[in-house]
Specification:
Blueprint (H helix, E strand, L loop, with lengths): L1 H7 L21 H4 L14 H54 L3 H4 L3 H8 L4 H12 L7 H21 L2 H7 L3 H6 L1 H10 L14 H14 L9 H11 L2 H11 L3 H7 L3 H18 L1 H9 L5 H9 L8 H14 L1 H14 L1 H4 L4 H9 L7 H10 L3 E2 L2 E2 H18 L2 H4 L1
Antiparallel strand pairs: 1-2
Helix pairs in contact: 6-18, 7-11, 10-11, 11-12, 11-13, 12-13, 15-16, 15-19, 15-23, 18-19, 19-22
Length: 414
């Protein structure tokens, strides 16, 4: 203290205890408050004007920080309110599904009220049951039949591990067909299925279950075998259904015309689906359609991955389940309507991109995509072209193809 007085020639006056930061409700970070601090003793003191300016700057910083804090608090409250509202809606919807709809399924499933409720998303507690009923069981698979094919798969796994070394496995996987049917590919794909969840990884609670469903299917449908992407579909079903029910839904789902065409790599049928998609693409998003055309960017570049996994790999899991809800209600048409909804959602961004960036963007969609935004865009997509609906457009493409085949038949020419 004495040294300070001797060096500066001024008497030391301690600052009043309550003058600084008085009546400030928001306490800023210490670095923000540094602007109010006096200069070190070996430097000239602040002028009155500078001190006042610093006080003003500080007050402005505090006000801005407080504004941001209030804005963030309002945002958090809004999110919580929406979450509580969503939970209330799910709870009330669950009661309606359990007490009214499911006991009277056949009579109520096609009513306007049920279809509207369905569009809003199924409550997780009834999702698996509704999916099973909507997909149906045209193949008449029973839990006992599943056990038979699972036993066969286990026998194959056992003989496979006994007779093949790692080198042999590589030989077995030489051709594409063999590779797709091989157990090694199933093992590889299981570890790649929802890796962030860890539940399907080796040692995870659902690893063996997923392995069983996929293995049993390759024995049940050797003509289809195992194809990459199947693991995502089976995994979503396993998360919502018991093991045997998941297998029954899986086998019936993959037996639908669209899935069968894609998983059997039926190029002719796949091209028809792409052509039908482009009809509605041009109808709904003409500017983006022409932009894609200018780069010769065809639907197979992005649609194959979306259709193969029913969007479960491309979208956040909860949003993918929401897409599945309406897909089970509307069938294959909704898969392509969802694709158009995604393109509509990101139309402005995609119009600014070239071929490479569009392909990269659509292969890995943004993670912040929300169900509200996507379903709002899907709802805006009109699945009607010249008064023809999806099924009619697809049927006319199939008819044109058959007539074209007749016209080009060597037998007819001779």
């Amino acid at each position: 203290l004495y040294e300070y007085e001797a060096r500066t020639g001024r008497m030391y006056k301690p600052p009043p205890p309550s003058t600084r930061r008085k009546n400030i409700e928001f306490e800023p970070l210490s670095t923000t408050a540094l602007i109010l601090e006096d200069r070190p003793a070996n430097l000239p003191a602040k002028s009155v004007e500078e001190a006042l300016r610093h006080r003003q700057e500080y007050d402005e910083m505090v006000a801005e920080a407080k504004k941001r804090e209030i804005k963030e608090a309002h945002k958090r409250k809004k999110i919580m309110r929406e979450r509580f509202k969503q939970e209330d809606n799910i709870a009330s919807a669950m009661v309606i599904w359990i007490n009214e709809i499911l006991p009277n399924w056949e009579g109520m499933r096609a009513t306007r009220r049920v279809r509207e409720l369905w569009w809003q998303g199924l409550p997780p507690s009834v999702r698996g049951k509704v999916w099973s009923l909507a997909v149906g069981n045209e193949l008449n698979i029973t839990p006992e039949l599943y056990e038979i094919f699972l036993s066969r798969a286990k026998e194959r796994w056992k003989s496979f591990s006994e007779t093949n070394s790692e080198n042999d496995v590589e030989d077995v996987s030489a051709s594409v067909a063999d590779r797709e049917a091989s157990l090694e590919l199933i093992k590889l794909d299981i570890s790649r299925t929802f890796p962030s969840l860890y539940i399907f990884q080796k040692g995870g609670p659902y690893h063996d279950l997923l392995h069983s469903v996929l293995g049993a299917y390759t024995c049940y449908r050797p003509d289809v075998g195992y194809v990459q992407g199947m693991s995502f579909i089976a995994a979503v079903l396993i998360l919502n259904l018991e093991e045997a029910d998941a297998f029954i839904a899986f086998a019936n789902l993959l037996n639908k015309p669209c899935q069968l065409a894609f998983f059997r790599v039926d190029h002719s049928m796949m091209l028809k689906y792409f052509a039908a998609f482009e009809v509605f693409f041009e109808e709904n998003l003409p500017k983006l359609f022409l932009h894609f055309k200018s780069y010769s960017l065809t639907p197979d570049i992005y649609l194959i991955d979306w259709i193969f996994t029913l969007y479960s790999k491309s979208l956040p899991l909860d949003l993918a389940c929401r897409v599945w809800d309406v897909f089970c209600r509307d069938g294959e048409e909704f898969l392509f309507r969802t694709g158009l909804g995604i393109l509509r959602l990101y139309e402005d961004i995609l119009l600014q991109m070239d071929f490479i960036h569009i392909a990269q963007f659509l292969t890995k969609l943004p993670e912040d995509i929300t169900s509200e935004k996507l379903f709002s865009c899907i709802a805006a997509i009109q699945m009607q072209n010249s008064n023809k609906k999806w099924a009619q457009v697809f049927a006319s493409l199939m008819k044109d193809n058959k007539e074209g085949d007749k016209n080009h038949s060597p037998a007819l020419k001779s």
